[in-house]
Design a protein that fits this description.
Elements lengths: L1 H14 L2 H17 L4 H12 L14 H12 L2 H14 L2 H26 L13 H12 L4 H39 L3 H16 L2 H30 L4 H12 L14 H16 L7 H4 L7 H8 L1 H21 L8 E2 L7 E2 L5 E3 L3 E2 L13 E11 L4 E13 L2 E6 L1 E3 L5 E2 L3 E4 L4 H11 L3 H32 L5 H14 L8 H42 L12 H6 L5
Helix pairs in contact: 1-19, 2-6, 2-19, 3-14, 4-10, 4-15, 4-17, 5-12, 5-15, 5-16, 6-7, 6-11, 6-12, 6-14, 6-15, 6-19, 7-8, 7-19, 8-9, 8-17, 8-18, 8-19, 9-17, 9-18, 10-15, 10-17, 15-16, 16-17, 17-18
């Protein structure tokens, strides 16, 4: 397992090289200026389109604008907002949140462009079941840029679909299921695999019905889950309202200077804050990844740009609103830099392992503490001082441990760290490894004991279900393009099976979780960026023409907005 984790780490170092991050951010910046700050149109005209003013039942497509956005948001507003933000703070520090905002702001232009591009080239041979996404852009759109791009376009389309399936199975599926199993087991003692089995059955029932059933489910689920989560977040922030200005200052300060270590946080450089903020924001809002265009391509509209403008709202809702709520909850409660959860009765000494330069803590009985019930497989860590750590710009490192029950007696078996000189324990105790969504839940618990247990567990289930069913549709589009409709049933069975596999307990730490999800997101971005850049002129030209017609009054609303019930259910376009 250690070799596997090292391989995954090395792959991430290539995929998430700083050049890739700067290219992604630069893409958003270029498209922002090129489109004339299209964020403005998304935040104004986009809401009217979303409300149903422009819905047309005679246009090609399967679902209305609201359901298309809900389906795309159900894939983005999910555990990335609960667990992903927690990962960004715990690994990159408060400054990571600032870079999440930056990515979210410029990501609005990126998302608008890539969705518009996919709408221009979607396949509507079956008007009630259209197909779209970067693979169709590469196949149908790139030859329009230059005839010689026809062959390379088909290759790019296939590469994108392969990368899409990797990301679907890892980030869109297994990451979500793992978090569900982890938090349910932590709070209720229910074996993780049991949650995985239930989750796979629920998802299977929904995805069998196709995009119309998915759109109907997400149209109802997304507004409820977002409202519930943000109401609870508002309560927590109201309790700690006096700390909010200080936390905003901490976020801005940490974005441009090294974050100091404290408690459970070992510190973080500007570079690491930037990297983790970028990675988690991209995993959360998926701008530049090429995923949500597949959901938006199912929208009923004869105006491709109109759906692109609606899509521009996604990063705003996802990153600038929901992620900020989660970040402030974590920061104001202090859970991210808390003191040790369980103190050592006697501080142990580090010893050298059989490998020269490798140091560990000898196996030890787990220390006792009131309110701590050790369970087999519980992940823990402590903090040691050794060689310089480039992540934190100090000498602090995490050393991970795992609890093993032997005749009802808990023992901790420790991993190792590399250091030329003998490292020393910096913390006088053990930190429980609250990974991803569990850390966010603990933040809620600090304000009102039990709030995180029930709220976050319920939110994680709802967010995971909505995300998994949306990503099931994305992966299905890749399968349809590569193999055809005949392979969809087999794909859905494998997809549901992997939900259960993800809950078998193979992932133990937040670093492992970050590495695995990073690969899924990274490969799609690398495949989608060439398609986006090559076709972006088509999208920007279409966008400017649409805006001009809008200014000239040529695109007035088709009808008065429908009732909210008709909008959510999609009856306004039936």
């Amino acid at each position: 397992m250690q070799l596997f984790n090292q391989i995954i780490t090395d792959i991430n170092a290539i995929i998430w090289h700083n050049y890739v991050l700067f290219t992604l951010l630069g893409t958003g910046v270029v498209l922002t200026f090129w489109s004339g700050f299209s964020q403005y149109r998304a935040l104004t005209h986009g809401w009217r389109v979303l409300r149903g003013h422009y819905d047309d039942p005679d246009a090609p497509g399967a679902i209305n604008h609201f359901q298309a956005l809900s389906t795309a948001l159900s894939a983005t507003v999910g555990l990335g907002n609960i667990g992903g933000v927690a990962l960004a703070v715990s690994l990159g520090g408060p400054g990571a949140i600032f870079w999440m905002w930056v990515v979210g702001l410029f990501g609005m232009a990126t998302k608008l462009t890539e969705v518009t591009l996919s709408m221009l080239h979607r396949n509507t041979d079956d008007p009630d079941n259209p197909h779209g996404g970067p693979m169709w852009v590469a196949k149908n759109g790139l030859p329009l840029v230059h005839p010689k791009l026809a062959g390379p376009g088909k290759v790019l389309a296939s590469v994108f679909c392969v990368c899409l399936l990797i990301s679907t199975l890892i980030g869109g599926n297994m990451f979500q299921a793992w978090n569900v199993g982890e938090i349910t087991q932590t709070y209720f003692g229910i074996p993780s695999i049991a949650s995985g089995i239930v989750l796979s059955i629920v998802v299977g029932i929904v995805i069998i019905g196709g995009i119309k059933r998915i759109g109907a489910a997400t149209g109802r689920l997304v507004p409820v889950m977002v409202t519930m989560y943000m109401m609870a977040g508002t309560y927590v922030l109201a309790v700690n309202v006096q700390l909010i200005p200080e936390m905003f200052m901490l976020i801005f300060r940490s974005a441009f200077s090294t974050s100091e270590a404290g408690g459970a946080f070992i510190g973080g450089t500007v570079g690491y804050a930037f990297m983790f903020g970028m990675k988690r924001a991209l995993f959360s809002n998926e701008a530049g990844e090429g995923s949500s265009p597949m959901a938006h391509s199912a929208a009923k509209t004869s105006e491709p740009v109109r759906e692109g403008i609606v899509a521009g709202l996604e990063p705003f809702i996802d990153t600038l609103v929901v992620c900020t709520f989660t970040a402030l909850v974590i920061l104001t409660t202090g859970i991210w830099n808390r003191p040790v959860d369980v103190a050592f009765s006697e501080r142990p000494q580090m010893v050298e392992t059989a490998t020269p330069g490798s140091w560990s803590i000898p196996e030890m009985p787990a220390p006792h503490a009131k309110g701590i019930d050790w369970v087999n497989g519980q992940a823990v860590y402590s903090i040691v001082s050794g060689d310089l750590n480039p992540q934190s710009d100090n000498t602090l490192h995490r050393i991970n441990g795992l609890v093993e029950m032997r005749d009802d007696v808990p023992f901790i078996t420790w991993g190792s760290i590399q250091s030329e000189a003998q490292p020393t324990l910096d913390s006088n105790g053990v930190f429980l490894a609250y990974v991803g969504a569990t850390l966010t839940a603990k933040a809620f618990d600090t304000v009102s004991p039990g709030l995180g247990k029930w709220l976050i567990t319920l939110s994680v289930w709802m967010f995971a279900i909505s995300t998994i069913i949306s990503w099931a549709y994305y992966g299905e589009q890749g399968v349809v393009y590569l193999i055809g409709e005949r392979a969809v049933t087999g794909y859905k069975l494998i997809y549901c099976l992997l939900i259960a596999v993800a809950t078998l307990g193979l992932i133990k730490t937040d670093a492992q979780l970050d590495n695995i999800t990073g690969i899924g997101t990274g490969v799609m971005i690398l495949a989608n960026l060439p398609i986006l850049w090559l076709g972006s002129r088509q999208a920007i030209t279409a966008y400017k023409e649409y805006v001009q017609r809008l200014k000239n009054g040529e695109l007035g609303p088709g009808h008065t907005p429908p009732s909210l019930e008709d909008l959510v259910s999609g009856k306004d376009v039936k």
